[in-house]
Amino acid sequence: MKLIKFLITLSFLVTIGVGYSFAGIHLVPTEYATIQEAIGAAINGDTLLVSPGTYHENLDFLGKDLELFSLYRTTGDSNFIVSTIIDGGDVGSCLRMVSGETGIVSGFTLMNGIGSPYLGIFRVGGAFYLMNSSPTIDHNIIKENVTPDGGGGIFSDGGSPIIQYNNIVNNVTTSGSGCGAGILIMNTAGGEIAWNYLQFNTAKHGGGIAINGASPLVTRNVIAFNTAISTGGGGIAMYNNSSPDVINNTISNNTAPCNWGGGVEIQDGSAPVFMNNIVSFSVQGGGFAVIGSCTAVFSYNLYFENVGGNYINCVPGLGDLVGDPAYIGGAPYDFHLTALSAAIDHGNPDIAYRDPDGTRNDCGAFYYNQGATTPVVLQSFNAALVSEGVQLNWSTACELECYGWYLQRQTENGEFVNISPFISGYGTSIEEHDYGFTDVNAQIGNSYTYRLLQIDIGGAVTYSDEISVTCSLSKPERFSLLQNYPNPFNPETVISYTLPDAMQVRLTIFDISGRLISELSNGMQDVGLHKITWSGRRLTAGTYICRLEAGAQTYSRLLTLVK
Question: Same structural domain for residues 408 and 446?
Answer without folding.
Answer: yes
